Amino acid sequence: MPNGLLDIESLSRTEIEALLERARYFQPWQRDKDKRQDLLKGRLMVNLFYEASTRTRISFEIAAKRLGADAISITSSGSSVSKGETLLDTVNTLGAMRPDAIVMRHSASGAPHFLAKQLVEIPIINAGDGQHEHPTQALLDALTILDKRPTLEGLRVAIIGDVLHSRVARSNVHLLSKFGADVVLCGPAPLAPKELASIAAGVSVTHDMKEALRETDIIMMLRVQLERQNEVSFPQVDYYRFYGLRLEHLGLAKQGAIVMHPGPMNRGKEISTEVADSSHSVILSQVENGIAIRMAVLEKVLS
């Protein structure tokens, strides 16, 4: 990670394992009475978010502050972008202010990479770019799995929903494939095209939810991202019927299978309330682990 964290695809398995191990060190801090340490005292992180976010933006802020760094958040609606300022001008303005790292979310795939090329001396952390990647989400998902399983190797993981538009799915596929997991992508044909199987080794695609769930260890549900579609690719009235995760589906997976969701959830559209709140669900653990992972990433980038 010579210049921040732009994606999972370019990371080695060793680099991923090091971040996961450091995040495990930070996990107990979340429950300590005194959560703040001064490992990054005097450092400044800027959150530059061109898309709405709750979990990612806030957890980066919390992670920075628990490490003793200062954190400032900028949204497009609260910046000069709303007055017509270009991304390049915003980038140059931020660069002149000399932050120690910039965390960026943008609707355009590759925007953080563009930023990294313009500001070569400032580490850039990708908090989600278009349909490309969301690296810290994949890392926190891996950490959450390891809380329940001894290894990522040999797992069968079903990723179900709007795979085509999901940066979460792509980052998870790249990460899990580095550990030899068997990843099954599932959704309506327009949202899970067969060519997605070529993303990485060990990936297959099916449009049959029951087939995807059979003997699965990990179930990752995805939101249908209507904001990234020019037109609705699958009738919403039929989506939950064919691809919504309900209690009866859990019997197809392995005993003790865990259910994940990156959020925000749409209960009754891609997942039932009974499943989301069941003992199989680790969705809130994902949120909590997001802080530990982002602490590990910020420490690596800023120290």
Architecture overview:
By secondary structure, the protein is of the alpha/beta class. The protein folds into 2 domains: 4-133 and 287-302, Aspartate/ornithine carbamoyltransferase (Rossmann fold), CATH 3.40.50.1370; 135-282, Rossmann fold (3-Layer(aba) Sandwich), CATH 3.40.50. The chain has 10 helices and 10 strands. A 5-stranded parallel beta sheet has the order 1-5-4-2-3, with helices on both faces. It is globular and about 55 Å long.
Topology record:
Elements: E1 4-5, H1 13-26, E2 44-49, H2 55-66, E3 70-75, H3 87-96, E4 101-106, H4 111-118, E5 124-129, H5 135-148, E6 156-160, H6 167-178, E7 182-186, E8 203-206, H7 209-213, E9 218-221, H8 236-243, E10 258-260, H9 273-276, H10 283-302
Parallel strand pairs: 1-5, 2-3, 2-4, 4-5, 6-7, 6-9, 7-8, 9-10
Helix pairs in contact: 1-5, 1-10, 2-10, 5-6, 5-10
CATH topology of the largest domain: Rossmann fold
Give the termini distance in whole angstroms: 12 Å
In helices, the fraction of residues equals 25-40%
Beta-strand content bin: 15-25%
Mean pLDDT: 92
Count of domains = 2
- Which overall shape is indicated by the principal axes computed on the Cα atoms? globular
Strand sequence of the main sheet, in spatial order?
A: 1-5-4-2-3
Number of discrete helical segments: 10
The CATH H-level superfamily of the largest domain is Aspartate/ornithine carbamoyltransferase
Number of strands: 10
Structural class: alpha/beta
